[in-house]
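Re: that chain you flagged

S.,

Sorry for the slow reply, it's been a week of failed gels. I finally had a moment to sit down with the sequence you sent. For the record, here it is as I used it:
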Amino acid sequence: MFEPQVYQNRRARLRAAMPGAVILIPGHVDSPRNYLANTYDFRQNSSYLYLAGHALPDLALLMLPDGEEILFGIPATIDDIVWTGPVPSLEELAAAAGIARVEPLPRLEDRLARLKDVHYPRPFRGEMELRLAHWLGMPPSSVRPEASADLMSALATLRLCKEPREVEQIELALEASADMYDAALGAMMPGAREQDVVAAMTGAALFHGCAQSFTPIVTIHGEVLHNHAYHNTLHEGGLLLVDSGAETAEGYASDITRTFPVSGHFSARQKDIYEVVLRGQLDAIAACAPGVGFADVHGVACRSMAEGLVALGLLQGDVGELVAAGAHAMLFPHGLGHLLGLDVHDMEDYGDLAGYEPGTGRSRRPSTRSWPPAPASENDRCACISACYNYCGLPQGVFP
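Prediction finished late last night. Pasting the structure tokens below so you have them in one place:
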């Protein structure tokens, strides 16, 4: 966690954006994989992490109009400690986040029953919808529609522009990514399996104390956008697409994509297409600047890649007309990139029409996706006060 003052300042800014509001920020609960005691790795709600920092289940933050803040949780019992070892008390957790008061989680329902117009963010996990329905006395079907648009907008505005400490965290995630891709190169050879590459990358992330920020895509079938099977064998002359990221202990993510020639060098055709993708990425990076609309940068990448594909004879016609008609989207079917931060697609609902404001972080991912597979490349970028810079130090040139 960061220092308590960090979380206090963030909550003060949220209160200033929503004066007089009752704000409930529920943390996540453990999610069972196949029976109650066997859970998925715990991942805290990102807005809770932003405002309180605890990566532990069964917590909730209540912010009241008079400035009072209460941390609700379940104190550990002796039976719990047998399995977990000593854990911080609720009072210690509250102090770490700069919160003055704690109460047992079962009291939250009674607290909320005496309050009006409780603002809470839209949940995306089913168990959180049920928990909010119970706390707020409403049908589960009403939980998502009645989530506070004002609160979500305020949270997005706060989380959009990254503090220097947050930029440092993303850079730490990218340091782990760099070693993950070095490990991938070391494991990649004709006859190796995709799972061999995944195993090497997982070890590199753990060496940095990082988790995977999403399920890695490591595949010889780069034409399939989200391919999470790793059973294929790498072949001489083939390509391997790797789309992966690391997540720091504080919850900040990286997201990098590279396409490698399995044999160590591209064929002439592969090199031509890779250079089209690389030029699209470099042109998009050059277009990034504070105040520039994201859709405008996406358009730069589309036109750049259409020009390259026309030059190779893979598209025919006027470049402007092809882009206007969306012909390039047959080979570039997804968006250029996304926000980065506490989520690998940070605040996914924020929208891609937002501009580059100082402190925002985005990935850059032009690609060609086709049958047969073709290359993709993705870097992470940050907008600063007067310019943008590349978070990512991974090389992105063409293999000879």
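What I noticed first: The chain has a mean pLDDT of 89.

Talk soon,
D.
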